Amino acid sequence: MSLRHFLTLSDLTKQELENLIKRGSVLRKMQHAGEIYQPFVGRTLGMIFEKSSTRTRISFETGMGQFGGSAIFLSPNDTQLGRGEPLEDSARVISSMVDIIMIRTFGHEKVETFAEYSSVPIINALTDEFHPCQLLADMQTYYEHHGSIENKIVTWVGDGNNMCASYMQAANQFGFELRVAAPYGFEPDPKLMERFSHCVSLVPNVQDAAKDSNLIVTDVWASMGQESEQSTRARRFAPYQVTPSLLDKADPDVVFMHCLPAHRGEEISHDMLDDPRSVVWDEAENRLHAQKALMEFLLKDKIKLSH
Ligand code: CP
Ligand code: NVA
């Protein structure tokens, strides 16, 4: 039995990712049909949150419940993690009791350390550097609306942040062209730009970047932990607001995504989420189905044992 983690999209092969997206879509249909499927009876998910969350917490906790298992919400305020118990020790102890663990934290090295000392799969549920679970939902949503994203044009508008970095990895794994329209000084990590130069380019003019795009995506201007930069960022990012008229420059079949939470009047105009090209509610719901597919994949050996 091989231990697999999901810290970034690069932890899975292109084929595994594609299978996961399709499986997420099947699980969505099963859920909508009211089908009961409980491969995880008696299994437990540990959920470590060092940052706030609505979608991630609800989707993981509900997904585990629908699969017949249970989930434990672990906040640093209520565990010894918040009182300085080393990550290495916490990883050993928590993983000796639960079957799978998801972590939302600050530095990416924290999930790497946790994974190194864990005896069960670790899922990155957002770090300052990456948000791979969101990409599973986004890729599933594109697939459900328009089929394969291979060879399509995706435009990322705004901060070259954790979401953007995961989009860069997705461009490589799913085979699309990614244009990044970020203000000067807020571009993605140059090391990532170099690594993915075959599929990612900087197009600072947002109108040019949007042209012929099949998917336009944006995110908040100030991520969790950057609250003190809110007003500076608001000035710098103002020309990068995504609006229905920006989408008019894109391919006629373009869709709009945003991982949410969204700030109307900042990164999106007040009418953007109500535009028929916005698929954000499907995207949010697909966090549930995509992560169920992910947990099923990471625990497939245990599922075999229980059947
Ligand atoms: N998109 C996302 O991760 O949302 P939450 O912060 O609500 O979990
Ligand atoms: N970039 C955002 C994503 C929130 C889901 C953040 O890190 O706060």
UniProtKB/TrEMBL annotation:
GO terms for biological process: citrulline biosynthetic process; L-arginine biosynthetic process via ornithine. Residues 152-297 form the Aspartate/ornithine carbamoyltransferase Asp/Orn-binding domain. One of its GO terms (cellular component) is cytoplasm. It comes from the Bacteria. Carbamoyl phosphate binds at S53, T54, R55, T56, Q80, R104, H131, P132, C133, Q134, C259, L260, R287. Residues 4-144 form the Aspartate/ornithine carbamoyltransferase carbamoyl-P binding domain. The lineage of its organism: Bacteria, Pseudomonadati, Pseudomonadota, Gammaproteobacteria, Moraxellales. Pfam families: OTCace, OTCace_N. Pathway: Amino-acid biosynthesis; L-arginine biosynthesis; L-arginine from L-ornithine and carbamoyl phosphate: step 1/3. This is Ornithine carbamoyltransferase. GO terms for molecular function: amino acid binding; ornithine carbamoyltransferase activity. It catalyses: carbamoyl phosphate + L-ornithine = L-citrulline + phosphate + H(+). It comes from Psychrobacter frigidicola. Belongs to the aspartate/ornithine carbamoyltransferase superfamily. OTCase family. It is an enzyme of class 2 (transferase). Its EC number is 2.1.3.3. Keywords: Cytoplasm, Transferase. L-ornithine binds at N162, D219, S223, M224. It is found in: Cytoplasm.
